[in-house]
Amino acid sequence: PFNIMADLIKIGVFPAPNQPLEPDIAAKICEIHGFTFEREKRDKDKGFHKEVEVIKEPEAPKQEPEDLLKTRPPIVTIMGHVDHGKTSILDYFRKSKVVSGEAGGITQHIGAYQVIHNDQEITFLDTPGHAIFSDMRARGADITDIVIIVVAANDGIMPQTLEAIKHAKKAKKTIIVAINKCDLPSSNVDRVKSQLAENGLQTTDFGGDTEFAEVSALTGKNMEDLLELIALQAEVLELKANPKATARAAVIEARVVPGRGTTATVIVESGTLKVGTPFICGPYAGKVRSLINDRGAAIKSAHPGMPVEVIGFEELPNVGDHLTEMKSEREAKSLASERQEAQRLVRLKPQHRNRMEDLYSMVRDGGGKAQLKLILKCDVQGSVEAIRKAVLAITSEKVECTFITAAAGPITESDISYAASTDAIVLGFNVKVEAKAVKSAKSASVEVKLYSIVYELIDQVREAMLGLLEPLT
Ligand code: GDP
Q1: Distant-in-sequence, close-in-space partners of 126: CB < 8 Å, separation ≥ 6
Q2: Binding residues for GTP, per the UniProt record (predicted)?
């Protein structure tokens, strides 16, 4: 069973019990569990839900047509205890095996780089340590396929080695062990192997299923073998992506570069990211102005598995956010403002949202008199008075009804924020909902009900107050 509460807390959302989730957040939770989130149209409602245009971030289809899938490079993270040689291994590959083959020609530090081994690309995440790893995992954006656990042959396993093993196992990653510093006279490979075996990593020599390489990042000994093991494991994993799909990429680094503005390094997950592509990334819109590869060269497009620095962010994105290609800048902007509004309202702490239907369960669950708070907006002052009187005349032992406001005029954004802060339901009689109000009502999950027939309105309120409405969910 899923523990949604725990998942929510992990992504920094602290909902009250029974609080409806923002669509955006629901989508994230779905993503963590490998589902695709779709919004249901609530035709049952007399509300505005039907008319609202919902711009959805295109979802990468989970099941891509087989013939469109192409092999993609593995994404490798190096983890291990401090000083055991993570940086040295990364530097060794970077210097000796860069894609262009021009040793020493690499200057850019964009957070990841690629090497070519027997015509096969391998992508290394350049940020050693598991801080970033668990951070990205928590956001459901962990893109690593293979984890290299580095252990110094002279030191043996240390606390951070164990932690790294724990992380990698929990994330169900393919693990390759690199026993480093094998050039040292004090190295003791057998000891390291038995220590690792005690911790669940048994070498294939001893009937286990973990590949080991005995290397030296200093002398370069067996470093080719390590690459070969990575390539083999990648083959076993059958890593594939559709380069023709909607482009999607994960942010692994983000920074502000003087003279260049906001840039972020992403790793393309599917599709092909091209210059000129409009996108959404977290709550921000953007458009790819330029792409820079791991050698500092401007490129036109980036394929799956490739790390690339993207220029064209509106604001600094978060590590772990996904960049998704959008059809147009307009749609990207619109989705961005929807998400920003949702964030703003989450920050305003919209706790439990009342819905008329919820009164039913509140009444059933007991706990004193339930409160039905209403914000009423009508076309004319005459209807305001008539409806208010009729509603207040309804008597219920279980529900107490109060009007936060009752006035003539359309439903505005401020009605919605008022409803959000007082936990009220908004009723409209023969009025329109302003466009901005539609948006914020959606983001804040404020219930808005529209009526054009007086007795329907009164009846529904009565039913709610008598606890007769069935919950919709
Ligand atoms: P990190 O903290 O895991 O990134 O470790 P570093 O890559 O910074 O390496 C720590 C120290 O070990 C440095 O002084 C390296 O020069 C040294 N070192 C790394 N790899 C080797 C190796 O294979 N052999 C020897 N003798 N020293 C190494």
Answers
A1: 90, 94, 109, 110, 111, 112, 113
A2: 80-87, 126-130, 180-183
List C-alpha distances in Å: 279 to 246, 314, 326, 327, 343: 10, 10, 5, 8, 19
Distance 262 CA to ligand 1 centre (A): 33
- Of all protein residues, the one whose alpha carbon is nearest to atom 22 of ligand 1 is 181
Let me know how long the chain is: 473
- 319 vs 316: CA distance, rounded Å: 9
- CA 306 to ligand 1 center in whole angstroms: 27
Phi, psi of 180 (to 5 degrees): -100, 170
- Going by the annotation, the residues of the binding site for GTP are 80-87, 126-130, 180-183
- 334, two tokens: 């619109």
Would you say the CB of residue 31 lies under 6 angstroms from ligand 1? no
* Residue 82, ligand 1, Cβ within 6 A: yes
pLDDT along the chain (473 residues), means of 10: 72 71 78 70 42 52 76 93 91 73 57 90 76 51 86 93 87 93 96 93 86 95 96 95 94 83 92 96 93 92 96 87 92 89 64 57 59 89 88 81 88 88 88 89 87 87 71 43
